[in-house]
Amino acid sequence: MSLLSVENLEVRHGLLRAVREVSFAVDEGEVVAVVGANGAGKSTLMRAVAGAHQPAEGRIGLDGVDVTARRAHDRVAAGIALVPEGRRLFADLTVEENLLVATRVRRPGPWDLAAVVAAFPLLDGLLKRRAGNLSGGEQQAVAIGRALMTNPRLLMLDEVSLGLAPIMVDTLYDSLGTILSGGTTVLLVEQDLGRALGVARRVLCMLEGRVVLDEPADEVTREQVVEAYFGLSRAAAATVQEEPA
Ligand SMILES: Nc1ncnc2c1ncn2[C@@H]1O[C@H](COP(=O)(O)OP(=O)(O)OP(=O)(O)O)[C@@H](O)[C@H]1O
């Protein structure tokens, strides 16, 4: 049985159908990358799975249990954790306090303060610092650590590399590599196609709210993903790529 199942999901912002007729499933231990252009619906999909945005239609299942009507904190308790775009830390709280906030709805499991610092060595020595005073990369590590502190069964990461220096992205992905190899089930929104295809076992591409490609990462070419990403025919996609910037 799949860990996460999304069936015929529709999520609206007012009249806008930001996610439409979306169905997919994620198996335990799978790492799935969600890619797509700006506005394709990736963040809205993640927020709906996390319970931050109620869908207009469809069903979200965790381990066969329908969680569609459950509130966000009940979904955390059930094992769904989201690292939102923009991180959303408590800027005036310390790193330690930000991490401990998550333990109010903590599931039993291996993640605690020491485990988070071990996974993200860049946080070593920063536990008593105000989160608002950290660099963007350090804040992102705290945001991922905060999600891990709940001992999630499904970890969703929305654009962890957004706005960060390449060297910091490398550092974060080094840490993520350790986490991913530990068997955590992950749904990852990533703009960098190379990175997405590098870490994920499956890639799911969204276009205007719909899933237009859902393939094993090692069976899909970069060209096929780009084609799905822009919604172009293969020939048209090649023309776009050849045009000078
Ligand atoms: N709070 C909101 N109110 C109204 N419309 C919204 C809101 N959030 C997103 N949208 C719209 O919903 C659509 C999907 O947005 P969403 O942020 O889910 O896409 P995305 O693929 O995550 O894009 P990005 O990479 O830019 O974050 C877009 O048309 C966006 O303008």
TrEMBL record:
Domain ABC transporter: 4-233
Keyword rRNA-binding on entry: no
GO molecular function, one term: ATP binding
Record keywords: Amino-acid transport, ATP-binding, Nucleotide-binding, Transport
Nucleotide-binding listed as a keyword: yes
InterPro entries found in the cross-reference section: AAA+_ATPase, ABC_transporter-like_ATP-bd, ABC_transporter-like_CS, BCAA_Transport_ATP-bd_LivF, P-loop_NTPase
Domain of life the protein comes from: Bacteria
PROSITE patterns per the UniProt record, alphabetical: ABC_TRANSPORTER_1, ABC_TRANSPORTER_2
CDD domains: ABC_TM1139_LivF_branched
Gene3D superfamilies recorded: P-loop containing nucleotide triphosphate hydrolases (3.40.50.300)
Stated family: Belongs to the ABC transporter superfamily.
Protein name (Swiss-Prot/TrEMBL): ABC transporter ATP-binding protein
